[in-house]
Amino acid sequence: MKPLLIVSHVACSRPGYLCDYLDRQSVTYRRFSIESGEALPPADELSGLVLLGAPVSVNSAQVWIEQEMALVRDCAEREIPVFGICFGGQLISKAFGGEVYAAPSMQIGWHPITITEQTRRLFNGNPVPEHFSAFEWHGETFTLPAGAVPLFNGDCIGNQGFLHRGCLAVQFHPEVTEEIIREWVARYEACVDKPTVCVQDHHEILLDVPLKLAAMRHMADNLFDWWLGQVEPVNTPR
Fold first, then answer.
1. Is the pTM value of this prediction over 0.85?
2. What's the Rg (C-alpha) of the chain?
């Protein structure tokens, strides 16, 4: 069976809860690090593609960014589902003609997300909350490519997710675990030492993290369920 490919761009941005979910479903997947310097596999070897976050801009002059965008477009042509998270979602936007640019402010911490009517239809009537709190950590935002279906809206930064040509993009982080959040807060402490409306300090970020994660995972599971349903069945255990 062809595996899902999960692409990470830096060691501290890991698939986290997504792997827990895939393991529960006995789904075959392969983890790939851009930092390895290896070539990305071609689309025809994949059943699906997941792109994680990165501490660089999609607009950076990095060869691998162009290669990833080409892989995204190739997957779309072959009807291979793509799921982009944060940087990965921004990359999907740019791959299909959207713009990625600096947001008015960084957005860090737990922020309210509103689903659209299109999101409700996407889940075919399954019970999903109209509002939920999601974990954010980004300084750039994106426009929706022409023809994209808006799925999620936010407070500090409006565009929080869309669907385009089988590619699901979200700005927030449904994959994080408590360990990942604590690591980011410690590693990037300077980003949270001066809180604003859109940037929470480390105390607010870490307050009741297990409860906040449990609430976010209700929506994350719905997202992963829907997206995995678009992927060619891969039931062979790893």
1. yes
2. 17
Burial of 83 (0-12, 13-18, 19+ CB in 10 A): buried
Express each pLDDT in 97-129 by its tens digit: 999 999 999 999 999 999 998 888 887 766 778
Distance between CA 115 and CA 141 in Å, rounded?
A: 18
Residue 58, sorted as left (phi over 0), alpha (psi -120 to 50) or beta, turns out to be alpha
Residue 236 has pLDDT above 60, yes or no: no
Q: Which residues are catalytic?
A: 86, 173, 175
Portion of the chain with pLDDT greater than 70, in percent: 96
CA nearest neighbour of 100 among 64, 69, 136: 69
* Token pair for 95: 């791959």
d(CA 130, CA 138): 23
Q: Provide the 8-state DSSP code for 199.
A: B
Residue 103 lies in a domain: yes
Domain residues for 110? 4-230
Number of domains observed in the structure of the chain? 1
Distance CA 91, CA 51 (A): 9
